[in-house]
Structure formats: C-alpha cells, structure tokens
Amino acid sequence: MRIDLHTHSTASDGTDTPAELVRGAAGAGLDVVALTDHDTVGGYAEALAALPAGLTLVTGAELSCRLDGVGLHMLAYLFDPLEPELARERELVRDDRAPRAQAMVGKLQALGVDVTWEQVARIAGDGSVGRPHIATALVELGVVPTVSDAFTPDWLADGGRAYAEKHELDPFDAIRLVKAAGGVTVFAHPAAVKRGQCVPEAAIAELAAAGLDGIEVDHMDHDTATRARLRGLAAELGLLTTGSSDYHGSRKTCRLGEYTTDPEIYGEITRRATGAFPVPGAGGREG
Questions:
Q1: Bridging pattern class, strands 279-280 and 56-67
Q2: CA distance to 21, 98, 241, per residue, from 105 (Å)
Q3: 3-class state of residue 113 by DSSP
Q4: DSSP assignment of 190-237
Q5: For residues 223, 228, 230 and 231, what is the CA-based torsion angle, rounded to 10 degrees?
Q6: Fewest beta carbons less than 10 Å away: which of 82, 173, 186, 234?
Q7: For every one of its 287 residues, what pLDDT tens digit does the chain have, with 9 covering 90 and above?
C-alpha cells in the first residue's frame, strides 16, 4: 500500500481542486490519501464525490497552533467534523486569516512591494487565504523566485518583516479537542528549520505526555540526519511516525506520494480513531 497523509487543495492553499487532487492521487499510484487543508474540511465533500475506485480517502485538517511564540502545525485525522468545540476553533482561525493576510499585504506595501489585496484574493480564490497565497503574489511580482523563498525573515517567515500574527490554537488544546472529537493527532514537519524557529524536543515530549499520537518524520523539509533523529525521539516517546508529501499542487515542488506512511502505522491511526472512518472509493463522478 502507498499512503500519503498530508495534502492540500484549493479549499486552503493548494492549487488542485479536491476532485483534481483525488484523481491525481489515484494517478500517482496511491492507495490512501488524506486531505488535510489548513483549519478546514471544506474540500472533503467534493473529494469524496470524485473519489476514484481503488483509492481510500481520509478526512483531516492541518491545525494552526502556537507554543511559546513558535508556530507549529498539528495534523488531525478522522475526527468528527461536526463536533462543535473543534469546529468553533477552526472557524475562529479561518475568520482571522483574511485580516491577517491584509495586514501582511500592508506591511509589504510599506516595504516598497507593489502587491495588492486584490491580487492576493485572486490567487486565493475560494480557498482559505494564507501566507502561501501572498508568497505566490511575490513570485508573480518577481520579488522572490519561488514560494519557498518568500518564507524567510526578509519576508513572510515567523517574525519576518512582513509577518503578522493570527488566532492560533495552543497545541495542548488542539490535542484535547481532536481527541474529544474522536481523532488522532500528528505533529507536522516538527523539525522544518528552513521554515523558521521550531519547538524544542522537550516540548514534543510534553505534547506526547498530553496525548500526541505521532510525528511526521519523512517530509521534504527533513534531511536524512533529521529523520534519523526524529525516529529515535519517536521511539523514545512511544510516538507513531508518518511520512507524507505535504502536496500543494503547483505551489510547491513536492509530488503526491513523494513520501509515504507505513501501512502498519496507518492501520494504528485508523484503530485509534472513533470520530470518522476512511472511505474507499467506488468510482467518483468526473468534474
């Protein structure tokens, strides 16, 4: 089995629609794909309707969190999307995205960048606007060569010149909320230093003690030595280890299925979940 547990669609900051994403996942030879848009499950219905035969869909979300001033992302899998407390927190984060993005556009303009809110809104379309949309605008304007190059202290990285804060969950609250909704939590790319400051390993131990299920180890932002270190840490803390593409369509260079999760780990995730269940495709509609 080939299993990719971290992907994004146009419901947040990917460039593929949910339907295009699941068809692309099947075309890439995946057996299981998780749709984990930022702070939303808004793309799930479309993905499910288009789900090809032979591909299983896992519902999920990537929750925006912050611990001691450091941003981090928490992957949540197979939770009840209608559980009210978690749904309310996701809505608070989403509602703060547009004002935050507008603030960053204003900071960029003050730095002499000829970016407009209209440009960023066009790029985001119906998706939940975020930094990758602003980064794409910077690429369009020739300010930076790639989206990744926008996530530096000069521009959009945490604490960068054009950075603005938004409402984010405390990760301990995120774990509690996802557990209460019957879901499973995995710390996304915990050592992606190129994105900015990372939480210390001592904090990961504290999150594990609070009920964190796993950490994402095999990821494009982790080099070989980092993956080895994280595997050792996971073994020490009794955490599951996952691998995922973090696919964003054409917005990033990673490919669907570039990194995958061991089937035994996936099986354990599904065994722990009680809020929702993976859905096997029976041949979705085109569109």
A1: antiparallel
A2: 29, 10, 37
A3: coil
A4: TT-GGGS----HHHHHHHHHTT--EEEEE-TTS-HHHHHHHHHHHHHH
A5: 140
A6: 82
A7: 999 999 999 999 999 999 999 999 999 999 999 999 999 999 999 999 999 999 999 999 999 999 998 999 999 999 999 999 999 999 998 889 899 999 999 999 999 999 999 999 999 988 888 999 999 999 999 999 999 899 999 999 988 999 998 889 999 999 999 999 999 999 999 999 877 789 999 999 999 999 999 999 999 999 999 999 999 999 999 999 999 999 999 888 899 999 999 999 999 999 999 999 999 997 655 44
Q: Give the Cα separation of 74 and 164 in Å (integer).
A: 20
CA distance 180 to 174: 10
State the Cα–Cα distance between residues 131 and 136, nearest whole angstrom. 9
Place of tokens 């299920």: 213
Could you tell me the two tokens for 17?
């629609």
Three-class SS state of 48: helix
Which residue has 């509609």 as its token pair?
285
The token pair that represents 231 in the structure block: 């595997």
